[in-house]
Amino acid sequence: MNTVTNIISFDIEDWFHPEIFAGKFPQEEWPLLESRVKQDTEIILNFLSRKGLKATFFFLGWVAERYPELVTAAVRGGHEIASHGYAHSMITKMAPGEFRKDLRKSLDILNALSDRPVTGYRAPTFSVTRDTLWALPIMYEEGIRYDSSVFPIYHDRYGIPDAPRSPYIIYRENGAEIMEYPMTTVPLGKYNLPCGGGGYFRLYPFPLTLNLMKRCQRSGQAIMFYAHPWEFDTGLPKVELGLASRMRHYMGIDKFLKRLDVVTSRFPFTSFREASRDMLLKV
Ligand SMILES: [Zn+2]
User: Are 225 and 269 in contact (CB under 8 A)?
Assistant: First the structure.
């Protein structure tokens, strides 16, 4: 018996946007770098179309502004448009006023291109942490109704290790409400092991990923799968990085599409918007 609705989402950003490059490539230099987000996102769109899947696309405003045709192609494919902020700044590095400006800028661009109002947000580098909960009322005021940014793990850059592992109401005040869809983890002793996508999907041995996903399904927990366009790009420009960062960033890219094909054949996936019809979710 399997009635769990899993969610598949993509954070649409270029290869130079991840936090790992924040010191190397400042925003002023982005327009000078080779952009690969268009061709990489097209790989995702073609894959989803071939599999008949609907997904949520958390677009970076900076990307949507340069390639509006990617947003309209996602809309045409029946996918949900959501926000990944404008300039890929971690909330932990912004003041409340800066955060509002960044979010609003992305929403202005995306709402003009989307077929429905944008209500979903994923913070760059999962930066909704204990220190940035002040961002939630601002999100609500700007039209956000669900967030998918909390990682219930210990990590050097992000995470709320003791946050709930299933969807919960993260903010509620005077009738205002934001649902949180935390990234998927499986409890292992006193720690939570991530198993929902991105680097974890590339670095773990594939049988381990499948096993963890099976465990999620058996216990009735939905899998929140996430990935980035650059994770499908076997021609990614190679940048000098330390060994750990290099592994985290480049390993397993050649296997990503094949693995995703297997996972989406074994488990049912859809977008946040579609899932809200099946689950007790307010999206
Ligand atoms: Zn990102």
Answer: yes
Would you list the domain boundaries of the chain?
A: 6-278
Ligand 1 centre to CA of 124 (Å) is 4
Q: Report how far ligand 1's centroid is from the alpha carbon of 84 (Å).
A: 7
Distance of CA 263 from the midpoint of ligand 1 (Å): 22
Q: Residue 122's Cα: distance from chain center in Å? A: 6
Query: How much distance in Å is there from the Cα of 120 to the middle of ligand 1?
Result: 14
- On the question of pLDDT at 283 being above 70, the answer is no
DSSP assigned state of 20? G
| pLDDT tens per residue, range 68-94 | 999 999 999 999 999 999 999 999 999
Gap from CA of 275 to ligand 1 centroid (Å): 22
CB atoms within 10 A of CB 262: 12
pLDDT tens digit sequence for 120-173? 999 999 999 989 999 999 999 999 999 999 988 777 777 887 888 889 999 999
pTM reported for the whole predicted model: 0.94
Judge: domain 6-278, CATH 3.40.228.10: no
Distance between Cα 174 and ligand 1 center (Å): 31
